[in-house]
TrEMBL record:
Keywords: Cell outer membrane, Membrane, Receptor, Signal, TonB box, Transmembrane, Transmembrane beta strand, Transport. Residues 1-32 form the signal peptide. It is found in: Cell outer membrane. It comes from the Bacteria. It holds the Pfam family Plug. It is a multi-pass membrane protein. InterPro entries: Beta-barrel_TonB, Beta-barrel_TonB_sf, CarboxyPept-like_regulatory, Plug_dom, Plug_dom_sf, TonB-dep_OMP_SusC/RagA, TonB-dep_OMP_SusC/RagA_CS, TonB-dep_rcpt-like. Residues 453-960 form the TonB-dependent receptor-like beta-barrel domain. This is TonB-dependent receptor. Residues 137-251 form the TonB-dependent receptor plug domain. Belongs to the TonB-dependent receptor family.
Amino acid sequence: MNKVYFPNRMTQAFLVLLVCGQCSMLSASARARVAPSGNEISFRQTVKGTIKDAASGRPLGGATIGVKGASQTATSDDNGAFTINVPDNATSLMVSYVGYVTQEVPIAGKTTVDILMQTLSTDLSQVVVVGYGTQSRKDVTGATKTLKSAEFNKGIINAPQELLQGKMAGVNVTSASGEPGGMLGITVRGPGGMRVNNTPLFIVDGLPLDNSSTGGGDPLNFLNPQDIESIDVLKDASATAIYGSRGANGVILITTRKGKAGASTLGFSAGVGFSTIARALPVYSASEFRKQVVNVGGLLDDQGGDTDWQKEITRTAITQNYNLNLSGGADKLSYYASFGMQKQQGVLKNNDMDRYSGRFNATQKFWDDALVIEANLGVANTKNQRPPIGTMIGDAIANNPTYPAYDASGEPAKYQNMNNPLVTLALEDDITTINRVTGNITPSLRIIKGLVYKLNFGIDNSSSTRDIVSRPNAVPQRDGRLETWNVYNRNTLIENYLTYNFDKGAHSFLVLGGYSYQKFFQQGRNTSINKFPITPVDPIYNPGLGQELTLAANKPGGFAIENELQSYFARINYGFDDRYLLTINFRADGSTKFGENNKYGYFPSFSAGWRISEEKWMKGSFFSNLKLRAGWGATGNQEIPPKLTQALYTTSVSAGTSYPLYPTGAYPGGTTFTRLANPDLQWETSKQTNVGLDFGFLGGALSGSIDAFRKVTSNMLLRVVVADPIQPSSDTYINNKNAQVVNQGLELDLEYNYKSTGGMNFNLGGNLTLLQNELRNSPYTVIPSGSASGAGLTSATINGYVNGESLGTFFLKEWTGFDKDGLSTYRDVDGDGIVSDKDRIAAGTALPKVMYSFHASVAYKGFDLLANFNGVGGNKVYDNTANANFYKLRLSKSVNTTPEAVQYPEESVNNAAPVSTRYLKNGSFLRLNNLTLGYNFNTRALGISKYASMLRLSVTGQNLFVITKYDGYDPEVNTDRTIDNFTSYGVDYLSYPKAKSIIFNLNVSF
């Protein structure tokens, strides 16, 4: 049975503009009084009102207001306010705004109206961001998806990936743990590589990031979600080929907010959230523990207490979030500036993440707008304090609940035979501080009509300090140790490109050509020292108090990495009669990551579109939009460790260092190969075919898209054993020409918007992804990729890459029950009478075969309610936590377990618990991701519109419940158990528990 766990704006005070606006409208009204025939039109009183975004309450300046059946029009000002004169016989107004649903507003008997505009995400005039430019949605021929800020997920957000979780078909975002700032997994149309990083290429305001994490945590934690205006995802190769060797895993383009000329705004938001552990593991209480230990024949160690150790290490965590932004501009200058602060507590004690961020974006125009200079600057400081998470959780779920947590004096109790996690909390810390600056300046010059040159110079510079401290202590005895890591990361970019846009009759052309150079440098240094005296001075603040500094235990270390990428790229967009569309992309990438014989790779793509709804024979049909798309392209993946193409040496004086063909006896010290050079090594290649259909019905109220795709990744990068026995190195890296990873599937997006004349607005939408992933023609039957942890389990293989199966396939012995002695039995697959590793089977995959989400919103007058659900199916999770902890033998020794340990009465107390399908569980789930209830106050009715143009209160519930059969902390989990850089999937071992949260928010604009 499934289990359900509920686990701004400053007022526009420019009277000149106001008076001019009124005079303009009066002048227009005076002209409108005279009909073309010269007859006078009779007017009744004027109608006034405001126009705002229904989701955010933000005033919409520049909206067009017209009288239905007449020629009178008006435009809303920067506060969304308007005034219009209407004829006596007028019954309604028509209100339109780019990117929003056009509304008909009844005005019979009304002199004031307040209008909330609903966004139209499928609006064909919507501008979407593509590689090195923008396009109108109607002209896009590739598989792309745009998410605007009003559509983002709500709640406590640390990284941009969380904003789009469950919002896009084909995009799978997984939070591997509930730790604040922890790594987020994201794949677009399935993972393609085995040894390489499968993360998409992230580009922020035109600056490509390198996906490296300076100091740990997710590499995008530096971005304040409040600064993001939109996120565009390029999914198929016809769209991503413009990024060549980095486009195989998809491209995610993040655009931050910009100011608007003539609209000065001051915005402020404040939020406070309360988080608790969503699902605790059901370990025994003290009273039940006493019974169960006796029942299994164990010797009860009863200290008379009643302690819930999970409760002792967790807390009600508080998150505070404050944001201040200013935006506006004049005719030639626009700007956006912001400051954000988020202080987040984790649900585990002593776990805190603080982020301070600032941003300044500006656009300046010169020479009759021929020269436009855009500048974007972002700074961030994050500090992450982490307790010893694995140790804490391991102790909390295993500790005897009859042991008191505190002694008679109220201090954490200290035991010789058991670790009190509260003592561990006081003694151990892991603190990382990261400073990061990203920015770019992009001047563009219009040389002649249609021809524009653009320069993009950007830099991403970060530094981090990580202190891992174990403080000295008497009981339990600790010598004390401090280890410090300093990491520096610098990413510089310079691009030059030309775009030429021209029309000739029914033909339209957009031609792009350019050059890009990007350099990455990363350096790390580490030092350590042992044996600190027990003093009030923390070792972090005075490492010099350490008394032991030996090369054996404290040898300094470090690394340095430098990579360069030089590229040439081009694109041609052609359209005929606004019906037939063609896009051709090409990029040549040269990378220092690859061998001398393969420095450059070439990545073409082609795509075409047919706007069927624009055909004459389709006019008057019930389709408001119908476009057929098809494309093919080749992209690459160069996200591999550096210098694999070059030889690697080691110098040793140990007698164990051997040399090929050397006589027997002691070997002389010297330098030997540990890796051979391979000048032929290159990137993996992904070729993708996509066929899609965009459609719209009911005047655009119902819209969506369906895409079928097939992505084949080949030229797989593998490390293989050298066949020649006299080679100086035992293995080398190669590109296997035959091995392939095939991802194929179907994506469906649907959206329905309903607007009633009574002010009720309703939206319902969702997406579905069907995905099949398979490894083919691998030279190995299985490549181990995920290993187990825990006593007696360490390094045992859990999952791997199995030929003919999905990546992340669990490769295990099949548990079949118990024999007459209560010992586990396993299937003898090969029938040789011996159960061994040769009898392992492919027992399912950690990759979901079905991903889906759906959302619904309703708005009435000032109220709005929004719910987002997401889920997956067809995947499994290996419960390494249960495997290592929850079995009878441990319970008999007075170690706590869950009821899973005594699930089978016939099981012997001495039964071993090796890795097997016994602990492989269903990972499917349906989650209520977030639920938001908000109210937009009518500032005019409150008499404060002069000071506040928008005032909104809202409450959001995040991760309120999850429906799943999985009985661990959460089914969405992936503890990193990588083997030899082969990515692991779906392993749960002492994972940080997820939180459920309630967040209260205030938003105000002046």
